[in-house]
Amino acid sequence: MKFIKRLSLGSALGLVLLTACSKEQKQSDEETVKKDTTAQAESADQITFSKDQFAMAGIQTGKVESRNLKSIIKATGVIDVEPSSVVTISAPLGGYIKTAGLLPGQPIKKGQVIATLENPEFIDIQQQYLESSSRVTLLQQEFDRQQLLRKQDVNAAKTLQQVTSDLQVMKAKLSALDAKISMAGISKAALSEGKILPSASLYSPITGYVRTSNINIGRYVNPTDVLFELAKNGELHLALNVFEKDIDQIRAGQTIRFGLGSEQELNRTATVFLIGKATADDRMIPVHCHLSPSSGKGLLPGMYAKAWIEKTTDSVPVLPNESIVQSEGKDYIFIQTSQSDKGYSYKMVPVRKGIQQDNLTQVILPSTVAADAVIVTKGAYAILSALINASEEE
Protein backbone atom coordinates (compact mmCIF):
# COMPACT_ATOMS: atom_id res chain seq x y z
CA MET A 1 0.00 0.00 0.00
CA LYS A 2 2.88 2.35 0.82
CA PHE A 3 4.53 1.26 -2.39
CA ILE A 4 1.45 2.32 -4.35
CA LYS A 5 1.39 5.72 -2.62
CA ARG A 6 5.08 6.25 -3.32
CA LEU A 7 4.52 5.30 -6.96
CA SER A 8 1.62 7.70 -7.26
CA LEU A 9 3.60 10.49 -5.68
CA GLY A 10 6.51 9.83 -8.02
CA SER A 11 4.22 9.84 -11.03
CA ALA A 12 2.72 13.10 -9.93
CA LEU A 13 6.12 14.72 -9.50
CA GLY A 14 7.18 13.45 -12.92
CA LEU A 15 4.05 14.90 -14.51
CA VAL A 16 4.70 18.26 -12.87
CA LEU A 17 8.33 18.25 -14.05
CA LEU A 18 7.25 17.21 -17.59
CA THR A 19 4.64 20.00 -17.76
CA ALA A 20 7.17 22.57 -16.53
CA CYS A 21 9.68 21.44 -19.14
CA SER A 22 7.04 21.69 -21.90
CA LYS A 23 6.14 25.26 -20.87
CA GLU A 24 9.80 26.25 -20.81
CA GLN A 25 10.34 24.73 -24.29
CA LYS A 26 7.25 26.54 -25.68
CA GLN A 27 8.38 29.86 -24.27
CA SER A 28 11.83 29.25 -25.73
CA ASP A 29 10.34 28.51 -29.18
CA GLU A 30 8.17 31.63 -29.08
CA GLU A 31 11.18 33.75 -28.18
CA THR A 32 13.14 32.20 -31.04
CA VAL A 33 10.34 32.92 -33.53
CA LYS A 34 10.09 36.47 -32.22
CA LYS A 35 13.83 36.95 -32.59
CA ASP A 36 13.69 35.55 -36.15
CA THR A 37 10.82 37.89 -37.07
CA THR A 38 12.63 40.89 -35.66
CA ALA A 39 15.62 39.96 -37.76
CA GLN A 40 13.45 39.83 -40.89
CA ALA A 41 11.60 43.15 -40.40
CA GLU A 42 14.24 45.58 -39.22
CA SER A 43 11.79 48.50 -39.15
CA ALA A 44 8.44 49.58 -40.59
CA ASP A 45 10.01 50.31 -43.98
CA GLN A 46 12.98 47.88 -44.09
CA ILE A 47 13.20 44.13 -44.48
CA THR A 48 15.84 41.48 -45.12
CA PHE A 49 15.39 38.46 -47.37
CA SER A 50 17.48 35.34 -47.10
CA LYS A 51 19.04 34.01 -50.28
CA ASP A 52 16.32 31.35 -50.53
CA GLN A 53 13.57 33.92 -50.06
CA PHE A 54 15.26 36.15 -52.65
CA ALA A 55 15.30 33.33 -55.18
CA MET A 56 11.68 32.28 -54.50
CA ALA A 57 10.39 35.85 -54.90
CA GLY A 58 12.07 36.19 -58.29
CA ILE A 59 13.50 39.59 -57.38
CA GLN A 60 15.39 41.54 -60.04
CA THR A 61 17.16 44.86 -59.65
CA GLY A 62 18.30 47.72 -61.84
CA LYS A 63 18.91 51.44 -61.84
CA VAL A 64 16.94 54.53 -62.76
CA GLU A 65 17.26 55.35 -66.46
CA SER A 66 16.71 58.58 -68.40
CA ARG A 67 14.29 58.47 -71.34
CA ASN A 68 12.41 60.89 -73.57
CA LEU A 69 8.78 59.99 -72.88
CA LYS A 70 5.75 61.45 -74.58
CA SER A 71 3.11 63.22 -72.57
CA ILE A 72 -0.48 62.41 -73.51
CA ILE A 73 -3.44 64.70 -74.19
CA LYS A 74 -6.67 62.73 -74.18
CA ALA A 75 -9.44 63.70 -76.60
CA THR A 76 -12.63 62.35 -78.13
CA GLY A 77 -14.25 62.89 -81.51
CA VAL A 78 -15.79 61.23 -84.55
CA ILE A 79 -14.78 59.80 -87.90
CA ASP A 80 -15.76 62.37 -90.51
CA VAL A 81 -15.29 62.99 -94.21
CA GLU A 82 -12.84 65.55 -95.58
CA PRO A 83 -14.49 69.00 -95.88
CA SER A 84 -13.64 69.09 -99.59
CA SER A 85 -15.35 65.73 -100.11
CA VAL A 86 -18.86 66.77 -99.04
CA VAL A 87 -21.26 68.14 -101.67
CA THR A 88 -24.57 69.83 -100.87
CA ILE A 89 -27.33 69.46 -103.47
CA SER A 90 -30.14 72.01 -103.86
CA ALA A 91 -32.70 72.80 -106.55
CA PRO A 92 -31.48 76.10 -108.12
CA LEU A 93 -34.95 77.04 -109.39
CA GLY A 94 -37.04 75.15 -106.82
CA GLY A 95 -39.99 72.96 -107.69
CA TYR A 96 -42.08 69.97 -106.63
CA ILE A 97 -40.30 66.66 -106.02
CA LYS A 98 -41.57 64.15 -108.55
CA THR A 99 -39.30 61.13 -107.96
CA ALA A 100 -36.76 60.40 -105.24
CA GLY A 101 -35.63 57.06 -103.92
CA LEU A 102 -32.25 57.67 -102.26
CA LEU A 103 -31.56 56.72 -98.67
CA PRO A 104 -28.64 57.72 -96.40
CA GLY A 105 -25.71 55.41 -97.05
CA GLN A 106 -26.86 54.49 -100.55
CA PRO A 107 -24.00 54.44 -103.12
CA ILE A 108 -24.16 56.79 -106.11
CA LYS A 109 -22.14 57.41 -109.28
CA LYS A 110 -21.14 60.64 -110.95
CA GLY A 111 -23.86 61.74 -113.40
CA GLN A 112 -26.57 59.60 -111.80
CA VAL A 113 -30.06 61.13 -111.51
CA ILE A 114 -30.79 61.61 -107.80
CA ALA A 115 -34.11 63.49 -108.02
CA THR A 116 -36.64 64.82 -110.54
CA LEU A 117 -38.56 68.08 -110.07
CA GLU A 118 -41.49 69.80 -111.77
CA ASN A 119 -42.00 73.55 -112.00
CA PRO A 120 -44.13 75.73 -114.36
CA GLU A 121 -41.11 78.02 -114.60
CA PHE A 122 -39.29 75.28 -116.47
CA ILE A 123 -41.84 75.57 -119.29
CA ASP A 124 -41.41 79.35 -119.50
CA ILE A 125 -37.63 79.08 -119.63
CA GLN A 126 -37.72 76.53 -122.43
CA GLN A 127 -40.23 78.59 -124.38
CA GLN A 128 -38.06 81.69 -124.07
CA TYR A 129 -35.01 79.67 -125.08
CA LEU A 130 -36.62 78.36 -128.26
CA GLU A 131 -37.97 81.79 -129.17
CA SER A 132 -34.60 83.43 -128.51
CA SER A 133 -32.79 80.76 -130.50
CA SER A 134 -35.08 81.38 -133.43
CA ARG A 135 -34.64 85.12 -133.06
CA VAL A 136 -30.84 84.77 -133.04
CA THR A 137 -30.98 82.74 -136.25
CA LEU A 138 -33.07 85.43 -137.92
CA LEU A 139 -30.88 88.28 -136.70
CA GLN A 140 -27.73 86.43 -137.81
CA GLN A 141 -29.14 86.18 -141.34
CA GLU A 142 -30.11 89.85 -141.29
CA PHE A 143 -26.65 90.77 -140.02
CA ASP A 144 -24.98 88.85 -142.85
CA ARG A 145 -27.25 90.54 -145.42
CA GLN A 146 -26.69 94.04 -144.03
CA GLN A 147 -22.96 93.46 -143.87
CA LEU A 148 -22.92 92.47 -147.56
CA LEU A 149 -24.97 95.51 -148.52
CA ARG A 150 -22.67 97.74 -146.54
CA LYS A 151 -19.68 96.46 -148.45
CA GLN A 152 -21.49 97.45 -151.65
CA ASP A 153 -22.33 100.80 -150.06
CA VAL A 154 -26.03 100.19 -150.62
CA ASN A 155 -27.30 100.65 -147.06
CA ALA A 156 -26.49 103.08 -144.30
CA ALA A 157 -23.88 102.28 -141.66
CA LYS A 158 -26.47 102.97 -138.95
CA THR A 159 -28.65 100.12 -140.19
CA LEU A 160 -25.76 97.62 -139.86
CA GLN A 161 -24.93 98.92 -136.39
CA GLN A 162 -28.54 98.46 -135.22
CA VAL A 163 -28.72 94.91 -136.53
CA THR A 164 -25.34 94.13 -134.90
CA SER A 165 -26.59 95.46 -131.55
CA ASP A 166 -29.85 93.47 -131.75
CA LEU A 167 -27.92 90.29 -132.55
CA GLN A 168 -25.54 90.73 -129.61
CA VAL A 169 -28.42 91.40 -127.19
CA MET A 170 -30.31 88.33 -128.32
CA LYS A 171 -27.20 86.15 -128.09
CA ALA A 172 -26.66 87.33 -124.50
CA LYS A 173 -30.26 86.49 -123.63
CA LEU A 174 -29.93 83.05 -125.24
CA SER A 175 -26.70 82.41 -123.31
CA ALA A 176 -28.40 83.33 -120.01
CA LEU A 177 -31.34 81.03 -120.75
CA ASP A 178 -28.92 78.25 -121.66
CA ALA A 179 -27.19 78.64 -118.26
CA LYS A 180 -30.55 78.52 -116.44
CA ILE A 181 -31.49 75.37 -118.31
CA SER A 182 -28.21 73.74 -117.34
CA MET A 183 -28.63 74.73 -113.68
CA ALA A 184 -32.18 73.42 -113.56
CA GLY A 185 -31.18 70.11 -115.13
CA ILE A 186 -33.54 70.41 -118.12
CA SER A 187 -32.77 68.03 -120.97
CA LYS A 188 -31.11 69.91 -123.82
CA ALA A 189 -31.44 66.90 -126.12
CA ALA A 190 -35.22 67.14 -126.01
CA LEU A 191 -35.06 70.91 -126.31
CA SER A 192 -32.93 70.71 -129.45
CA GLU A 193 -35.77 68.71 -131.02
CA GLY A 194 -38.22 71.44 -130.09
CA LYS A 195 -39.79 69.51 -127.19
CA ILE A 196 -40.73 71.35 -123.98
CA LEU A 197 -40.68 69.25 -120.78
CA PRO A 198 -42.29 70.25 -117.46
CA SER A 199 -39.61 68.46 -115.41
CA ALA A 200 -35.91 68.71 -114.68
CA SER A 201 -33.42 66.30 -113.12
CA LEU A 202 -30.75 66.72 -110.45
CA TYR A 203 -27.51 64.82 -111.12
CA SER A 204 -24.77 63.66 -108.76
CA PRO A 205 -21.51 65.57 -109.35
CA ILE A 206 -19.40 62.89 -107.61
CA THR A 207 -19.08 59.16 -107.05
CA GLY A 208 -19.68 58.28 -103.41
CA TYR A 209 -22.65 57.79 -101.15
CA VAL A 210 -25.65 59.69 -99.78
CA ARG A 211 -24.83 61.25 -96.44
CA THR A 212 -28.23 62.87 -95.74
CA SER A 213 -31.54 63.00 -97.61
CA ASN A 214 -34.18 65.64 -96.81
CA ILE A 215 -36.84 65.12 -99.48
CA ASN A 216 -40.02 63.22 -100.14
CA ILE A 217 -42.27 62.98 -103.20
CA GLY A 218 -44.72 65.86 -103.61
CA ARG A 219 -42.84 68.31 -101.41
CA TYR A 220 -42.15 71.79 -102.75
CA VAL A 221 -38.54 72.84 -102.27
CA ASN A 222 -37.02 76.31 -102.49
CA PRO A 223 -33.64 77.09 -104.04
CA THR A 224 -32.20 77.53 -100.54
CA ASP A 225 -33.33 74.12 -99.26
CA VAL A 226 -30.68 71.41 -98.85
CA LEU A 227 -31.99 68.28 -100.54
CA PHE A 228 -28.98 65.99 -100.26
CA GLU A 229 -25.50 65.83 -98.78
CA LEU A 230 -23.21 63.59 -100.77
CA ALA A 231 -19.74 62.40 -99.79
CA LYS A 232 -16.88 60.86 -101.74
CA ASN A 233 -15.74 57.33 -100.99
CA GLY A 234 -12.62 56.68 -98.95
CA GLU A 235 -11.79 60.26 -97.96
CA LEU A 236 -12.23 60.07 -94.19
CA HIS A 237 -10.47 61.93 -91.40
CA LEU A 238 -10.52 62.09 -87.62
CA ALA A 239 -12.27 65.14 -86.12
CA LEU A 240 -11.34 65.60 -82.45
CA ASN A 241 -12.49 68.03 -79.77
CA VAL A 242 -9.67 69.30 -77.55
CA PHE A 243 -9.99 71.46 -74.41
CA GLU A 244 -8.78 75.03 -74.91
CA LYS A 245 -6.23 74.61 -72.08
CA ASP A 246 -4.42 71.94 -74.12
CA ILE A 247 -4.58 73.51 -77.58
CA ASP A 248 -1.26 75.38 -77.25
CA GLN A 249 0.50 72.02 -76.90
CA ILE A 250 -0.78 70.72 -80.24
CA ARG A 251 1.03 71.29 -83.52
CA ALA A 252 0.43 70.27 -87.12
CA GLY A 253 2.26 67.02 -87.79
CA GLN A 254 1.82 65.55 -84.30
CA THR A 255 1.05 61.85 -84.10
CA ILE A 256 -2.36 60.68 -82.90
CA ARG A 257 -3.11 57.24 -81.52
CA PHE A 258 -6.82 56.47 -81.62
CA GLY A 259 -9.41 53.73 -81.54
CA LEU A 260 -13.15 53.34 -81.85
CA GLY A 261 -15.37 53.36 -78.80
CA SER A 262 -15.74 49.58 -79.03
CA GLU A 263 -11.97 48.96 -79.22
CA GLN A 264 -9.89 48.40 -76.08
CA GLU A 265 -6.53 49.37 -77.61
CA LEU A 266 -5.61 52.58 -79.41
CA ASN A 267 -3.82 50.86 -82.29
CA ARG A 268 -4.81 53.22 -85.13
CA THR A 269 -2.73 56.28 -86.04
CA ALA A 270 -3.35 59.68 -87.60
CA THR A 271 -1.53 63.02 -88.05
CA VAL A 272 -2.76 66.50 -87.14
CA PHE A 273 -3.24 68.68 -90.24
CA LEU A 274 -5.68 71.40 -89.12
CA ILE A 275 -6.26 73.11 -85.75
CA GLY A 276 -9.34 75.26 -85.20
CA LYS A 277 -8.98 78.95 -84.36
CA ALA A 278 -12.24 79.43 -82.43
CA THR A 279 -13.64 77.99 -79.21
CA ALA A 280 -17.15 76.54 -79.07
CA ASP A 281 -19.59 77.12 -76.21
CA ASP A 282 -18.29 73.97 -74.47
CA ARG A 283 -14.72 75.40 -74.46
CA MET A 284 -13.59 72.84 -77.02
CA ILE A 285 -11.52 73.46 -80.16
CA PRO A 286 -11.73 71.18 -83.23
CA VAL A 287 -8.58 69.37 -84.36
CA HIS A 288 -8.60 67.51 -87.69
CA CYS A 289 -6.27 64.62 -88.46
CA HIS A 290 -5.36 62.63 -91.58
CA LEU A 291 -5.66 58.86 -91.16
CA SER A 292 -2.67 56.65 -91.89
CA PRO A 293 -3.23 54.22 -94.82
CA SER A 294 -3.53 51.21 -92.52
CA SER A 295 -5.94 52.82 -90.03
CA GLY A 296 -9.05 53.34 -92.18
CA LYS A 297 -10.24 49.73 -92.24
CA GLY A 298 -13.78 49.31 -90.93
CA LEU A 299 -14.33 53.04 -90.37
CA LEU A 300 -17.55 54.83 -91.28
CA PRO A 301 -18.50 58.51 -90.96
CA GLY A 302 -20.04 59.33 -87.59
CA MET A 303 -18.27 56.61 -85.59
CA TYR A 304 -17.18 57.67 -82.10
CA ALA A 305 -13.42 57.73 -81.50
CA LYS A 306 -11.12 58.20 -78.50
CA ALA A 307 -7.58 59.42 -79.01
CA TRP A 308 -4.23 60.25 -77.42
CA ILE A 309 -2.26 63.18 -78.76
CA GLU A 310 1.41 62.61 -78.00
CA LYS A 311 3.85 65.41 -77.18
CA THR A 312 7.58 64.80 -76.64
CA THR A 313 9.08 65.82 -73.29
CA ASP A 314 12.65 66.31 -72.07
CA SER A 315 14.69 63.40 -70.74
CA VAL A 316 13.21 62.23 -67.41
CA PRO A 317 14.08 59.49 -64.87
CA VAL A 318 12.03 56.35 -65.49
CA LEU A 319 11.47 52.89 -64.02
CA PRO A 320 9.46 49.88 -65.21
CA ASN A 321 5.82 50.06 -64.12
CA GLU A 322 6.15 46.99 -61.88
CA SER A 323 8.90 48.71 -59.89
CA ILE A 324 6.27 50.94 -58.28
CA VAL A 325 3.89 49.61 -55.62
CA GLN A 326 0.99 51.21 -53.83
CA SER A 327 0.32 51.12 -50.11
CA GLU A 328 -2.40 53.11 -48.38
CA GLY A 329 -2.90 55.25 -51.46
CA LYS A 330 0.76 56.22 -51.85
CA ASP A 331 3.42 55.13 -54.34
CA TYR A 332 6.68 53.47 -53.27
CA ILE A 333 9.77 51.76 -54.64
CA PHE A 334 12.25 49.45 -52.91
CA ILE A 335 15.96 50.26 -52.77
CA GLN A 336 18.49 47.54 -52.04
CA THR A 337 20.51 48.80 -49.04
CA SER A 338 22.85 45.84 -48.56
CA GLN A 339 23.85 42.43 -49.88
CA SER A 340 25.77 39.78 -47.94
CA ASP A 341 25.96 36.06 -47.26
CA LYS A 342 23.06 36.45 -44.83
CA GLY A 343 20.75 37.89 -47.48
CA TYR A 344 19.50 41.06 -49.10
CA SER A 345 18.11 44.13 -47.33
CA TYR A 346 15.56 46.51 -48.85
CA LYS A 347 14.12 49.87 -47.86
CA MET A 348 10.75 51.22 -48.96
CA VAL A 349 11.01 54.79 -50.34
CA PRO A 350 8.08 57.05 -51.34
CA VAL A 351 8.06 58.46 -54.89
CA ARG A 352 5.79 60.53 -57.13
CA LYS A 353 4.72 59.28 -60.56
CA GLY A 354 4.74 61.37 -63.72
CA ILE A 355 4.23 60.48 -67.38
CA GLN A 356 3.40 56.86 -68.18
CA GLN A 357 4.15 55.35 -71.58
CA ASP A 358 4.15 51.71 -72.58
CA ASN A 359 5.88 49.84 -69.69
CA LEU A 360 7.74 52.85 -68.26
CA THR A 361 6.78 55.47 -65.67
CA GLN A 362 8.48 58.75 -64.86
CA VAL A 363 9.48 58.82 -61.17
CA ILE A 364 10.27 61.82 -59.01
CA LEU A 365 12.66 60.55 -56.33
CA PRO A 366 13.44 62.01 -52.89
CA SER A 367 16.72 63.93 -52.71
CA THR A 368 18.07 61.28 -50.31
CA VAL A 369 18.13 58.63 -53.04
CA ALA A 370 21.46 58.40 -54.83
CA ALA A 371 21.52 58.54 -58.61
CA ASP A 372 23.17 55.08 -58.79
CA ALA A 373 20.87 53.44 -56.22
CA VAL A 374 19.98 49.79 -56.85
CA ILE A 375 16.20 49.63 -57.41
CA VAL A 376 13.98 46.56 -57.30
CA THR A 377 12.55 46.31 -60.83
CA LYS A 378 10.74 42.99 -60.44
CA GLY A 379 9.23 41.37 -57.33
CA ALA A 380 8.43 44.64 -55.54
CA TYR A 381 4.97 43.44 -54.51
CA ALA A 382 6.47 40.27 -53.00
CA ILE A 383 8.71 42.46 -50.80
CA LEU A 384 5.75 44.68 -49.86
CA SER A 385 3.66 41.64 -48.85
CA ALA A 386 6.51 40.23 -46.73
CA LEU A 387 7.01 43.59 -45.04
CA ILE A 388 3.30 43.90 -44.22
CA ASN A 389 3.13 40.32 -42.88
CA ALA A 390 6.23 40.81 -40.73
CA SER A 391 4.82 44.06 -39.30
CA GLU A 392 1.53 42.35 -38.41
CA GLU A 393 3.32 39.49 -36.62
CA GLU A 394 5.15 41.97 -34.43
TrEMBL record:
GO terms for molecular function: transmembrane transporter activity. It comes from the Bacteria. The keyword Manganese does not apply. Belongs to the membrane fusion protein (MFP) (TC 8.A.1) family. GO terms for cellular component: cell envelope; membrane. Keywords: Signal, Transport. It holds the Pfam family BSH_CzcB. It comes from Dyadobacter psychrotolerans. This is Efflux RND transporter periplasmic adaptor subunit.
